[in-house]
Structures are given as C-alpha cells and as structure tokens.
Amino acid sequence: MKQFLLLTFLILISCGETPQENETDALQQKDTLTYGLKQYSFAQPDAAISEVLENWVFYQDFKDEATTLYQLDLEQLRDKTGNLISHTDSLMTKVPDTLNTFSIKSRLAIIKTRSELLRLESLKGKIDPHTIEDYIEETNIAVNNFFVQIQEKLRKDGYDLEQIENEKKELEKQKRYLDSIRQLELADQKPS
C-alpha cells in the first residue's frame, strides 16, 4: 500500500508543471508585450532656454532617455529606466548655478522616485501591464513638470535680468538729466 501511494505521488509530481516552468512561460509571454503604448508630448523649450540647457552636462543624455519611454519591450524598459535613474543622479550632482533651486532639485528627486518605481515593477516576476503603463505615465508627467519648471525659472530669470537692465538704463538717464541740470546751474552761477 505504501508503495502504491509513493508511486501515485511520484506520477502526480512528474505529470504536473512545476512553478518554475509556469513563471518561465509567463515571462516569455510578457516579453512579447509592448509598453508605453502612446508617445507623450513634452513641453518644448524656447531657443534661448535651449542654449542654456546645452551647457548643462548630462542634460541631453537625460532628455534622450526620458522622452523615449514608449514602444518598448520589457528588456528595453528595464534598460531605459536604469539609464534614466543613472542620468537623473548625474543631473542632481551637476545642477548649474542658474538652476540650482529647491524646485528644480525636487523635480529631479520625483523623476528618480518614479523611475525607481517603474524599474522595480518591471523586475517583478509577475508583471501587470496596466501598472507599468500607469508608472510610465507618471514618470512622463514628472519629466514634463521638470521641463516646465526649468522653463519657468529661466524665463523668470530673463525677466528679472531685463528688469534690472531697464532699471540701470533709467538710472543712467536720470543721472544724465541731473548732470545736465547741474551743468546749467553752474553756467548760470558763473559771472558774465
């Protein structure tokens, strides 16, 4: 009787699929899926702002990775999120003085967090495509908010610089006017 039970047990085990085979099959099925089904439309910087951003080390690499989170298979998604995290870290350490504000750094931290969440979700054994799509969308929104924050900061700085220049011109104009009045007063005080 014990032999019969042992034999039945071995047959049941050998006939059924193992959990490893099920996970492998699931991963093979998931590899055929494409993530980031739609291309996100990011804010485009003005020409003057683009000039400033060209001087920011690592920015272009970051932008290239961040703006292309669409039409990716699982392996590409994992690579891209790893690169995005790396580029975000690099940007955080080399923020130019003109952009070194709390709001810019916090946007970078949000991008890093969103990218980490996306990467961790892509590394799970059982992948939920809807969750991945949500994380891609959230990452894209975070990147777009970062771009918008940069533009607002640089536009404000440009406005501030323009206002400072206008004030300097106004002061110079007033100085010339006062100098001309002083010259006229000195000319009137000279004995003829």
Provide tags for this entry.
76% helix, 0% strand, 192 residues, 7 helices
Written account of the structure:
The protein has helices at 2-15, 19-31, 47-54, 59-66, 74-93, 102-123, 129-189. The chain is an all-alpha fold and 192 residues long. Residues 21-30 have low confidence and may be disordered. Helix 6 packs antiparallel against helix 7. The protein has a domain at 34-156: Four Helix Bundle (Hemerythrin (Met), subunit A), CATH 1.20.120.
Helicity, as a percent range:
over 70%
The CATH class assignment of the domain at 34-156 is Mainly Alpha
CATH topology of the domain at 34-156: Four Helix Bundle (Hemerythrin (Met), subunit A)
* Nearest-integer average pLDDT: 80
Strand content: under 5%
Taking all Cα atoms into account, the compactness measure Rg is 31 Å
For the largest beta-sheet, the strand count, sense and barrel status come to: none
Beta strands, count: 0
Oligomer classification: single chain
Number of helices: 7
Give the helices and strands, then pairings:
Elements: H1 2-15, H2 19-31, H3 47-54, H4 59-66, H5 74-93, H6 102-123, H7 129-189
Helix pairs in contact: 4-5, 5-6, 6-7
Provide a brief overview of the structure.
The protein is an all-alpha fold and 192 residues long. The chain contains seven helices and no strands.
